[in-house]
Amino acid sequence: MELTLPAVESPSTLPVVLSKEEVRRLLLTPKNQKHRLLIGTIYDGGLRISELINLQIKDVDFDRKMIHIRQSKYKKDRYVPISSMLVRGLKSYLDITDPQDYLFNGKVKGSQISETAIRWVLHRGIKRSGIKKKVCVHTLRHSYATHLLEDGMDIVTLKNQMGHTKVETTMIYLHIAQVCPSHGFSPLTKLFPKGQ
Predict the structure, then answer these.
(1) From 141, 142, 147, 159, active-site residue
(2) Which among 63, 103, 105, 93 has a CA at the least distance from the CA of 81?
(3) What is the value of pTM for the model shown?
(4) Which of 2, 70, 157, 167 has the fewest CB within 10 Å, making it most exposed?
């Protein structure tokens, strides 16, 4: 028996989504390793800006290739898979930078990075990569969802990876991408299949 999804009203406005090529350009633009990894971690985990700010080193399971998102929106925990490429990058970054407590420290070691700093890194990358779309940090999360659907992830798995409480929230991405059943995976794996 085939599972069918309920009809969803078309939203009046759809989110801005970067193409895979635009994400690739954006990830390759920053010369600073920390900046590349900030953008890569948001995209590869589909993180909200608050989730990145609160992400601690202990929340990254390098062996299992997972990030533990703790008490995010709706006070829920979840695990999201990340790519081998991001794992390698984060290990290198930790060896070189030696941050304290939080994965991405602010100006003071051991402090959280600020929303302003994250937005500055993203907007600088967008400008330098020549992307003309109106992009915010949440655009990377929208792109994550859309690209996973396009790569074959089913809507329920995507709902869980994004930390949505209702599948209806996730279904907005059906207006942008086509669905094909599959299992959970991270988008950087598909974006850089040879681990470049």
Answers:
(1) 141
(2) 63
(3) 0.83
(4) 2
Please identify which of the residues 20, 24, 138, 190 carries the catalytic annotation.
138
Active-site hit among 73, 128, 133, 175: 73
Q: Quick check: is 73 catalytic? A: yes
Residues 14-29 have pLDDT tens digits of 899 999 999 999 999 9
Phi, psi angles (nearest 5°) of residue 11: -65, 155
- 138 given a catalytic annotation: yes
Domain ranges of the chain: 20-189
The CATH number fitting domain 20-189, selected from 3.90.1070.20, 3.90.650.10, 2.60.120.10, 1.10.443.10: 1.10.443.10
HSE-up (13 A, CA, CB side) for residue 54 = 12
| pLDDT tens track for 86-124 | 999 999 999 999 999 999 999 999 999 999 999 999 999
140 contacts: CB under 8 Å, gap ≥ 6? 18, 23, 39, 42, 43, 46, 122
Is 48 a catalytic site residue? yes
